[in-house]
Design goal:
Elements: H1 15-40, H2 45-78, H3 91-109
Length: 115
């Protein structure tokens, strides 16, 4: 099969288990992030659930769409199946960012928008 003539199947049967694994991982990370921001840091619910969670969700969806597009392009270019990189919130990085950046800024300024 020559490059450029490959028909990339957007979904296959095995993709559903990968979808649920990535969805569950990102959902739990969003719940942990929201819980820490609201209950540990004491941020207002309007900021946590009105800005942080929706912003993170939109960023995750956009990132996944970009990686799917890149995988589709690479499959067509190389004429074979490729795998899109799973995208989402890295759990270790989330904790570093929460307790190394957001928390200290919020505690020192008491300004959730700045944090």
């Amino acid at each position: 099969m020559r490059a450029g003539s490959y028909n990339y199947a957007l979904f296959s049967r095995s993709d559903f288990s990968a979808f649920w694994a990535l969805f569950t991982d990102n959902l739990i990370n969003l719940m942990v992030l929201a819980g820490i921001c609201q209950f540990v840091f004491g941020m207002p619910a309007e900021i946590v659930f009105g800005r942080i969670v929706p912003g993170a969700a939109v960023a995750i969806l956009a990132g996944i769409a970009v990686y799917v597009g890149l995988a589709k392009r690479a499959a067509k270019q190389h004429g074979r199946d490729v795998t899109a990189l799973p995208y989402g919130i890295s759990t270790p990085v989330m904790f570093v960012y929460l307790f190394g950046v957001i928390g200290p800024i919020y505690w020192s300024t008491n300004d959730p928008m700045l944090a």
